[in-house]
Amino acid sequence: MKMLYVCGSFKFVSKMNELEEKLKEENIEFLMSKKRNRRGILGCLKKNDAANVVYVINPGGYVGKSVCIDVGYAYARKKTIYAMHSIEDLPIMKLVNGVLSFEELINLLKYQ
Fold first, then answer.
1. Residue 7: left if φ>0, alpha if ψ -120 to 50, beta else—which one?
2. What range does the domain containing 39 cover?
3. How far is CA 84 from CA 35, 54, 64, in A?
4. Contact 53, 79 (CB under 8 A)
5. Model-level pTM?
6. 3-class secondary structure, 35
7. Are 106 and 85 contacting, i.e. CB atoms less than 8 angstroms apart?
8. What CATH number did the domain enclosing 20 receive?
9. Domain count, the chain
10. Percent over 90 (pLDDT), the chain
11. Strands 53-57, 4-8: parallel, antiparallel or unpaired by DSSP?
């Protein structure tokens, strides 16, 4: 099974909590950055390093600056990247492998 790293704007913590519960129910290994810590983006990048797959929670297509760093870093490290919705910023979206709902993501991870 692959290790998943979930990132998103702190505006979307409720969606992150929702996905977290679903991942736990399915026994899928994951790392998530959903609160600020003293390591900041460096803590996020460490989690990104530990994962094979990166998933961006981005209702309405929004990603903030830190999530853009996460996506660019994951791309440079040749990670598979999925987003919840198409990303508004087209150059960032070109780095993403696809758009998946929570259910599609879980099914993909369960059967790999």
1. beta
2. 4-110
3. 19, 11, 14
4. yes
5. 0.93
6. coil
7. no
8. 3.40.50.450
9. 1
10. 79
11. parallel
